[in-house]
Amino acid sequence: MNTRTPLSILLFAIALLTGTPLAAALPAKLGETPVPSLAPLVKEVSPAVVNIATRGTVEAPRNPLMDDPFFRRFFGVPEQHQRREVRSAGSGVIVDAKNGYIITNHHVIENADEIEVTLIDDRNLEAEIVGSDPGTDIAVLKLKNPERLKAMRLGDSDKVEVGDFVVAIGNPFGLQHTVTSGIVSAKGRRGINRDGYEDFIQTDASINPGNSGGALVNLRGELIGINSAIFSNSGGNIGIGFAIPVNIAKAIMAQLIEFGEVKRGLLGVSITDVNAETAKALGLDEDTKGALVQEVVPDSAAEKAGIEVGDIIVSVDDKPIGSANDLRTSIGLHRSGDEVRVGLMRDGKRRNVKATLTELGSLGQAAAEDIHPGLAGADLADYPDEVPGLGRGAVSVETVAPGSPAELRGLKQGDLIVSVNRVRVRSVEEMREIAEGRKLLLLGIRRSGRNLLLQVR
Fold first, then answer.
1. Active-site hit among 91, 106, 132, 137
2. For residues 280, 284, 290 and 294, what is the CA-based torsion angle, rounded to 10 degrees?
3. Is 404 designated active site?
4. What pLDDT does 164 receive?
5. What are the pLDDT digits (tens) for 311-367?
6. Would residue 318 show up in a list of annotated catalytic residues for this protein?
7. Catalytic-role residue among 91, 96, 107, 132
8. Is 240 left (phi over 0), alpha (psi -120 to 50) or beta?
9. 248: domain CATH number?
10. Is 107 marked active-site?
11. How far apart are CA 216 and CA 272, in angstroms?
12. Number of structural domains, the chain?
């Protein structure tokens, strides 16, 4: 039996899969048979992808004792500010040609004092930072002379399906405008990096160092994601890459352009994971997942919505919540003033309530990564009561996500932060002001009546 399939049939089948969504015509023929190609798509979208090179300075690591003025005075050590130059490179996507706006990753432009953008026609343009959000790893740049630019159309990442063909374009290892292709491997990936708010698109399109901030594009030539991270033991691609959905990037970009910062929503609860033991104690099935409400902040969105201590939050806007970190991410991706539909379990029965989120910080609360990345995974709140021996006021550690940077650095739920770099703090805002711009924090902790010192880099 002849099992060979004619080349024309194979090429026709591939053309149906890859050629139909493209607005551009198929390229040249091989004899009389059309050869499917992504070239028309790549030519259409590549001018919107740029190379980003940054230069800046960071504080050089040093012995923490050097931060102690008494130590320096005793040993006669002069005041020193050691800084070193750093350079980085990545990618970006032009999304507004008229105003010169570019979306990239926060980690690409972090610590940048100078930013140079290289276009596909080899023009080099200066750019400035409009705003940056470490929580979602999104930053917005503005070109100083936006002329003869081409922007990429923005798609709808909510409509992306697992199995969709995608193209990744960026500048891995400085190789400008490198194009790779693959499919959407999964959606809604979380827990990849506990430092921030995540809802990644996973793809097997090759993503390598330097691709960060580049474009993940569908076959209609629309931007559906901003390439951000990879799983790798070696630093190179192994077919597991992650992109920030463009709908999240759009929402963050709008706030950065309008306010210069992100006004993140706040529900106003302290939460923990639900495990089998907790579920059994509450009379629920042992496989029940969600976020157990341990505290409801007075006058918060949660209290006004009727959420109570002991409730298990199982969904937000009909999307399942499987852990405390899931809830933190879901709420953190909304802006203040948004109304969300919260599904919860109470007394074994499912209930739904609507909550209008307040602004993070409006109730003396904050996500700790907004103060220092080494504290990511913790939620902080003002502690107005008396601290024995120190007077009134401190910063309370409300929650600490398991496995988060905050937990790995020794922070525990219930800790009271009473000082930062030997300066007394009585509120989240005071802690934020002292920590601003510092790479190393020495946290004075009061835990169960004991005094501790935690070093956070």
1. 137
2. -60
3. no
4. 93
5. 999 999 998 898 888 888 888 888 889 999 999 998 888 999 999 998 766 556 667
6. no
7. 107
8. beta
9. 2.40.10.10
10. yes
11. 34
12. 5
